[in-house]
Structures are given as structure tokens and as C-alpha cells.
Amino acid sequence: MRQKTQTDRTRPPLCHAAPDALPHNFSGPTGSKLVGEAFETRALEFLQRQRLRFVARNVSCRGGEIDLVMRERDGALVFVEVRARAQRRYGGAAASVGWQKKLRIVRAARHYLAARSRDSRDEPACRFDVIAFEAGRLVWLRDAFRADEV
User: What is the pTM of this model?
Assistant: First the structure.
């Protein structure tokens, strides 16, 4: 049997230490999905308090996904991307919506509209919003980007 030495007692814990000893970073397939759903629910409740009506959630197509689809009082459809970051490193949650993500959202929105509209002249006005949770604080970016910009 090996005897513990002084150096054994001063070593830092290994990366596979007890889960409570490690900082939570929302990683892992189930962890990030549950956290994402919780933030989407908070965003949905906030938007409903702002008098937007719920239309759909997690609309996906081959090219992308839309977290929330809402309807404004004037009839305009609002496609909402929900982002959350625990820290503001690398620009925070709002900055994490880059041009590739915008392109996927616009692609999914076009697919959503095409599947529900029989005539392109019947398409409602649309807007792309981002709800960013910056260290737990909700920031609503109305008209965050336009389809013709991507």
C-alpha cells in the first residue's frame, strides 16, 4: 500500500472531481437544452406581458430554427432568437448572434412563411428580434436585424 506524501496533499483536484466542485457552464446535451428551454419560457412570458401573442415555439427546418414566433398587435409576425450567457465575455449573448446564425434564422422564417402562405402577396409584415439574457438580465432588441441584411 502506498503511503501519501506531502506532494499528494497539495495537488489540485483533477478535472473529474465531484460535479459540485466544478463551475457550471451549461455544457452537455441535456443541461444546455434544459437551460435553453427555461430562458425561452422566460422570454415568452416577457413578450406576452408586452402584449405580443404566442404563435409557435422551436420552429425548425433543414436550414435553421426559430426559438419563438410571436404576433404583434398590428398583425406583424415577430421571429425571436433567445440567447443567454452567464458572463459578458466575448461580447455577451447579443453579440453571439452572428451573420451565420442570422442566415439560419431568416432561412427558417422563409420556410415557415412558405409553409403557411398560399400566396406570397398574403405574407404579413415580419420582424426579427433578439432576447438576450446578459448575466440573468433580459435585454429585448426589437428589429435586431433584417432579412435583406444577411
Answer: 0.75
